Amino acid sequence: MVGLLGLRSGDTMLDAQTGDDLLLRFAHDRSGDFGRAVGMCFGQETVAAVQEQLERWDLQGIEMMVAHPSQPIQLADNSCNGIILRHTSRLVNLENVFANLMLITKKNGRIVVRHTQWDIHLPHATEREQEMIDALASPGCRDGKEFFHRFSEVDRGRSWREVRFDVYTVASRDPRASTRHDYDWRTMLREQLGAARSFSPREMLDLIERLNDTRGAKVTVDRYLALGICR
What we know:
The protein is α/β, with parallel strands linked by helices. It contains seven helices and seven strands; from the N terminus they run βαβαββαβααβααβ.
């Protein structure tokens, strides 16, 4: 995702949903010590994990900010050359999120958004199982087409100069489905439901077992990648 931003030395990049991984490091490698790689965190556990990572790296130009979903992003308008939004799960008002990101993006700056679309069918699912299945969906999008529409149509006084999309299957229990990165849907399911903090590990494992063993069950995970270049 960092590569899609086209960062150069001295640029400012925002990872709007940062985690304790290497994404900020990759951004720093492209923007250099005179640029800024900003990670925005939600929740104290994520903050602590990312802060520990930054202390180990001890690099100039990487910083972190703590944010709250109901508060505006604490960066100046037209200050970012590139922004990454890793996922759309639990984001209800996508148009408002996209519009706020556009406000802080410079002219010709790039915004990359990744949307994960789960397609799960479990015959005779219990109420609790259906609750977990529903929790995997983005509340802002019924399907990938709606995500495309919401991203491409958003406007906050400045339309996109260019919008590009990519769609690919990342995980499936159907061996005939094409996968670009060959992710394990079981791992993805546990990670996403675990982030929701509403379901026990036992419940997740039971759901996976049911999806594995139930005749007629279906699991496909498609990834939608949107790149918008601001006017």
